[in-house]
Automatic annotation (TrEMBL), chain A:
Organism this protein belongs to: Nocardioides gansuensis
Localization (cell): Cell membrane
Alphabetically ordered keywords of this record: Amino-acid transport, Cell membrane, Membrane, Transmembrane, Transmembrane helix, Transport
Transmembrane segments: 36-54, 74-101, 262-281
PANTHER family on file: L-CYSTINE TRANSPORT SYSTEM PERMEASE PROTEIN TCYL, MEMBRANE COMPONENT OF AMINO ACID ABC TRANSPORTER
The protein, known as: Amino acid ABC transporter permease
GO process annotations (BP): amino acid transport
Major location (coarse): membrane
Membrane topology annotation: Multi-pass membrane protein
Molecular functions per Gene Ontology: transmembrane transporter activity
GO-annotated cellular components: ATP-binding cassette (ABC) transporter complex
Record Pfam families: BPD_transp_1
Amino acid sequence: MTTTSESVRKDRDKQDLPELDATVKPRVHRRGALEYFAWLCCALVALGVVRTVFTNENYQWDVVAQYVTAETVLRGLVMTVVLTVLCMTFGALLGLLLAVLRVSPLRPVRILAGAYITFFRGTPVLVQLIFWFNIAALYPHLAIGIPFTDVSQDIDVNRLISATTAAVVGLSLNQAAYQAEIFRGGFASVDKGQIEAADSLGMSRGTKLRRIIVPQSMPTIVPATGNQFIGMFKETSLVSVLGVGELLMSVQLIYARTYQTIPLLIVACVWYLVMTLLLSYPQSLIEKKFSRTRARVSNGPAAVPTQTEMMGEAK
Amino acid sequence: MSQMNGEGTVHARGLRKSFGERVVLDSIDLDVASGEIVCIIGPSGSGKSTLLRCVDGLEEIDRGVLRVNGQDLGFRETPRAYQALKRKEVAAQRTRIGMVFQSFNLFPNMTAQENVMSGPVLVKGAPKAESRRRADELLTSVGLQGHGDHYPWQLSGGQQQRVAIARSLAMDPSVMLFDEPTSALDPERVGEVLAVMKDLAHRGMTMLIATHEMGFAREVADTVIFMDGGLVVEKGSPADVLGNPQEPRTCKFLETVL
Ligand SMILES: Nc1ncnc2c1ncn2[C@@H]1O[C@H](COP(=O)(O)OP(=O)(O)O)[C@@H](O)[C@H]1O
Ligand SMILES: [Mg+2]
């Protein structure tokens, strides 16, 4: 004969099942009331969003469906992808160069690289883009030639700087400044002992950079660059102000005609989202891969100096 | 090791090194003959590492004479001054000085074999096949045959340090510097590294070793130097310095470590 309180406990612990051995019993964690409340809020918000998205007719999902694979939109998307790849490539190459100049033994070189980075990171990229678009107002003629000779080629800057070149130049130069900082951070993440070991062997600066510093800073540089890539993909929408026919521009062209502004902006957003989601999968793989190698490297005994030495050689 | 041109020797006179205001090495005199084994002992912060780093050219000295392998390190003496050498000339001097660090500093992006090959191939431009063969020989000589394909993180501390020694030896240095090579190791791994160093000592390598291993110093060293506060306090045979110290500071230090 069991008492009521016992039967309640029995019910809760499900003791009608055979009791497990104490060493193999799972540990059940508490879920606080707060967690249930948070889930409830989450569900309510989701419900609200879904409801308005489907009941508010101004979204015009039929229009979205109609234009999401329209040829103009797809051409804009291709342009966006091309711009992203171009600007990231130029930006990364120039950024690497800047980062190397930034750690040059020659002070004036360091100063010039630093000034470049300060300028391009310190002014809005939108302003820079418009600036490049209007560069012809500043330098209407550009003479490319060999100094102190008559051999030269006069170039009409107005024709050279089309909207697309202004976009590529502007985004690349801006990206280079950010990329340079990423490279610099990566270089700085390399353990000082590595540089000393290389110096001790008599390695030249170039060899040290190529064989020791760059490979070892990849775990820091690659994931950050991946993030920049995703960022650049969205940043290209800025060049629509120059009239470059990328994704945002192409939907703008359509809604300027049809006045279906909201559904066409949704079309653009759908593509931006799809592409960033597609990109973030390889990005997460890259991050996982490099965080593992980094953990491996820094778990080695090499990274664990004794306490006394850490104090003795604090630098 | 040839005795000609002071190959394998280290000489310092009035060597001074400071970091900002702080004088870390003060009027150090040092004479290491070719093939001599010198152990530097002293409390933490006494300047042992800094002295070795100066001798390896990792730190520039403020004042004094520092001659390694018979050449002024990093500079050329002129009647009125020491003139800095070209980067290439400095690098050439460095290839003849080997340094083994407390924290190994193996290149983690290279296998053990590639680490050992790195000096000959990347610095001297030696042919790869030959350097690979040489690297395997060196790895065998430090008891690591078959570990050539392992990355540093796959090796124990003692193994890593032996790879580091092999990496230095691959450059055929005339002087080897060791900065507390066993301090970062688990106690049971210390012996294997000391054994490699003993072997090297018996083969006539000039060695300058900062260490806390008093037993090793007693057994292997020709000369023991006791440093404290950036000064050479006492210098002599291991029997004298370790067995019969004259300076009170040496006595006090030996009491704490023995
Ligand atoms: N790069 C540096 N900058 C400033 N002080 C340093 C630097 N390197 C070493 N020191 C100082 O020099 C002194 C001697 O250090 P170190 O040569 O590492 O001694 P040891 O190797 O005998 O423990 C210490 O007080 C340390 O703080
Ligand atoms: Mg030290």
